[in-house]
């Protein structure tokens, strides 16, 4: 790790702590050359592979933006969307994969979204499960009713 002040190519870790949400490690470092201290933040890279083959870093903001469209006109708050995005990121990271297809991220959204709002869930599922006809919607609604009767 290069010192940001004198560019010395080495530094010593003084202290390490995890962030509040546990997704990163903050390290306090000291430069042996100039003696100044600085902080670094380390996170595990999680990449999403799009249909085109392009990879990009996972983004909670993109999850929120996609779900926000499905929730348009529904009684869902921004805090609920942020919590959903956090749950999705935790689930995706728990898979242990460094790269995940975007379709899998979309499917990981379905569970938490079903718990949040059923209409938004159907809207989102119609895209990610590629509903082709009204029969697909009827089948999904029947499954939701069956699950609701069991709970």
From TrEMBL:
Protein's name according to its UniProt entry: Transcriptional repressor NrdR
Domain ATP-cone, chain residue ranges per copy: 46-136
Swiss-Prot/TrEMBL GO biological process terms: negative regulation of DNA-templated transcription
A Pfam family annotated for this UniProt entry: ATP-cone
Family: Belongs to the NrdR family.
Entry keywords, A to Z: ATP-binding, DNA-binding, Metal-binding, Nucleotide-binding, Repressor, Transcription, Transcription regulation, Zinc, Zinc-finger
InterPro entries named among the record's database cross-references: ATP-cone_dom (IPR005144), NrdR-like_N (IPR055173), RNR_NrdR-like (IPR003796)
Source organism (scientific name): Actinospica acidithermotolerans
General function of this protein: Negatively regulates transcription of bacterial ribonucleotide reductase nrd genes and operons by binding to NrdR-boxes.
Gene, per the UniProt record: nrdR
NCBIfam families: transcriptional regulator NrdR
Free-text remark on how the cofactor is bound: Binds 1 zinc ion.
GO MF terms held by the record: ATP binding; DNA binding; zinc ion binding
unnamed zinc finger span: 3-34
Required cofactor(s): Zn(2+)
Superkingdom per UniProt: Bacteria
Family matches, as HAMAP family: NrdR
């Amino acid at each position: 790790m290069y010192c940001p002040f004198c560019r010395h190519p080495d530094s010593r870790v003084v202290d390490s702590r995890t962030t509040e949400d546990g997704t990163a490690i903050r390290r306090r470092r000291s430069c042996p050359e100039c003696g100044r201290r600085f902080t670094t933040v380390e996170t595990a890279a999680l990449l999403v592979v799009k249909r085109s083959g392009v990879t990009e870093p996972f983004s909670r903001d993109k999850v929120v933006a996609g779900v926000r469209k499905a929730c348009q006109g529904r009684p869902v708050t921004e805090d609920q969307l942020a919590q959903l995005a956090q749950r999705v990121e935790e689930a995706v990271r728990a898979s242990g994969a460094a790269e995940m297809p975007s379709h899998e991220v979309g499917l990981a959204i379905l569970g938490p979204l079903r718990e949040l709002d059923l209409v938004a869930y159907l809207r989102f599922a119609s895209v990610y499960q590629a509903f082709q006809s009204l029969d697909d919607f009827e089948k999904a609604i029947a499954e939701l009713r069956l699950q609701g009767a069991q709970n």
